[in-house]
Amino acid sequence: MLTKKWWHEKVAYQIYPKSFYDTNGDGIGDLGGVISKLDYLKDLGVDIIWLSPIYCSPLADQGYDISDYYNIDPRFGTMEDMDKLLAEAKKRDMSIVMDLVVNHCSDEHEWFKKACEDPDGPYGKFFYIETVKDGKLPNNWRSYFGGPVWEKLPGHEDKYYLHVFHKKQPDLNWENPALRKEVYKMINWWLDKGLAGFRIDAIMNIKKPDIHACYPADREDGLCSIQNMLHDAKGIDEFLHEMRVETFDKYNAFTVGEVFTDRPDALKAFIGDDGHFSSMFDFSETVCGKNDDGWYKSQPVVCGDEYKKCAFDEQRRLGDIGFISNIIENHDEPRGVSHYIAEGEVNDTSKKMLAAVNMMLRGLPFIYQGQELGMTNVDFTSIDQIDDCSTLDEYQVALDAGLSPEEALRSVKPFSRDNARTPFQWDDSANAGFTTGTPWLSVNPNYKEINAADQVGRSDSVYAWYKQLTSLRKNPDYQEAVVYGELIPYLEEQKNLMAYFRKGQEKTLLVAANYQKQPQDMVLPSSYKKVLMNNCPALNQKGDVLHLDGYQVVILEL
H or E segment at 33? Predict the structure, then answer.
């Protein structure tokens, strides 16, 4: 049995502040916008808010390149605004979680500037800096954003620094105890302020194998996938245990890790009884269909039995080990309804089906801004409309593979991170009510049909459906089954039927979804007491057979 924690029964929500709500007309969302929408989130049933980075940053990677961990970027507001957000959230019994980005910082951070001045001094040891002779780089790793992981150190012809992400994101050297001490001091400073915890970014990268290790090239650029580094790195547990003891444990903080690893003991190590974090995201669905050669070879839609298999396999691995965090989308992924529902079949019925099968899984549900409205991908018509650096890199990969510009754009736009970063669609006025100025990224043209103002007061809306799901999770009559109950697949072999029990000590619920456009029948396991939720007007039953319309989902109390 799981030891109950304060955050188990909650619902979490991710805000990408730059695109959430702009209160000063500069086209960029801000902390004032978050504060002004707290009641909207409270009404939805949100308890924990994760803010994507709002620290000072040159925004080479949208704030994941931090130049000052102790200050708010003026684009988003001031530290006084942050203090007000913490206070206003507390009034509403809501918790604020920030991004912890400590694999790397910005090349504009004071530490890196000092390292450039004196590579052999104390701050030079905060990074991986190597002397390069005859132009031969220390290794052949390819960065996540393309190109080698080595860049010339400013002011030095023969010295290079390591960056596994953008060249403006130099990696921090966690082997250095002085660096770790500075990181822990910063974490505790924020927790002292009243932060409830952190979402921990790209954490698997803090442990490197021998940085001189080369691997077989897997593309014509002569470089190898960064996954080789992740696979060979050993000893990260010592760093993460130390960080937990020195920081999170002292505050009973909530932490959720962005953990990509093939370690067989990952769940126990990261979220078990003595795990490094409170929770970690389940990315099994998001990586399904991806191809190491690039997005142009990846599968744009994952649905039906593929989605079911990913979800059930992860739930089986999880067992009673710990609490996973379940997502449909986030700031790094395309919109879930566009990725997990077949093309041409995205409508309110199918959107509600996807919401139910995900939100009712065992674990902590995370809703990404706009997901509760069923916001969709953008039909980009030009690469010039895209801001995301990873999409631009993958576009070039596709061109290098021989695709035409039109084919390359068509291949990358289903996966672009900008799909999820377009401004939140508040209403049908100019710029979807996001800003009175010019938005930093174009609004999805479908905002007149999909927006909060239309949905909040409408009982049959996607928003209302999400509100029902969060209410069911918090209903005292069903909470024990929904939050802590077993998840047991039902009729798992039936094609495109995703059905499972949530079995508590006193109550058992059945979630049954027809994950396809065509109707199909399902044999009920027993009679039921009550229909808790149904995304279609009627429930058609004959004897023990339930007739499910296309994309119909029902939640029954047995």
Answer: helix 31-36
Percent of the chain with pLDDT over 90: 98
Helix axes 177-193, 236-243, angle to 10 degrees: 40
Q: How far apart are CA 365 and CA 372, in angstroms?
A: 12
280 strand-pairing partners: 257, 324
**549 in Cβ contact with 543 (< 8 Å):** no
The residue assigned the tokens 């039995």 is 305
Between 440 and 260, the more confident residue is: 440
Q: Is 487 left (phi over 0), alpha (psi -120 to 50) or beta?
A: beta
Q: Token digits for 176? A: 């250095």
Are the CB atoms for 549 and 514 separated by under 8 Å? Answer: yes
Give Cβ neighbours of residue 274 (< 8 Å, ≥ 6 apart).
none
For residue 509, give every residue at least 6 positions away whose Cβ sits within 8 Å of its Cβ, in sequence order, or none: 360, 478, 481, 482, 485, 501, 502, 503, 532, 555, 556, 557, 558
User: Phi and psi dihedrals of 545, rounded to 5?
Assistant: -105, 130
| Residues 107 and 169 sit within 8 Å (Cβ to Cβ) | yes
Q: Is the pLDDT of residue 132 over 70?
A: yes
Nearest-angstrom CA–CA distance, 256 and 268: 14
Tokens 């949905």 correspond to what residue? 455
Please state, in angstroms and rounded to a whole number, the distance separating the CA atoms of residues 429 and 425: 9
Q: Which tokens is 147 given?
A: 């190109």
Would you say 553 and 517 are in contact if contact means Cβ atoms under 8 Å apart? no
Mean pLDDT of 310-339: 96
Catalytic residue numbers read 201, 258
Q: Please, are residues 53 and 101 in contact by the beta-carbon 8 Å criterion?
A: yes
Do 220 and 400 touch, CB atoms closer than 8 A?
A: yes
Residues 61, 107 contacting (CB under 8 angstroms): no
pLDDT digits 0-9 by tens, 287-323: 999 998 999 999 999 999 999 999 999 999 999 999 9
Q: Which two tokens stand for residue 263?
A: 């370690």
Predicted TM-score (pTM) of the model is 0.96
Please state the rounded mean pLDDT for residues 31-43.
98
* Amino acid letter, 465: W
Cα(113)–Cα(104) distance, integer angstroms: 14
* 1 pLDDT more than 80: no
Tokens of 151: 């860049």
The pLDDT of residue 240 is above 90: yes
Query: Encoding tokens for residue 266?
Result: 């990952």
DSSP letter, residue 335: -
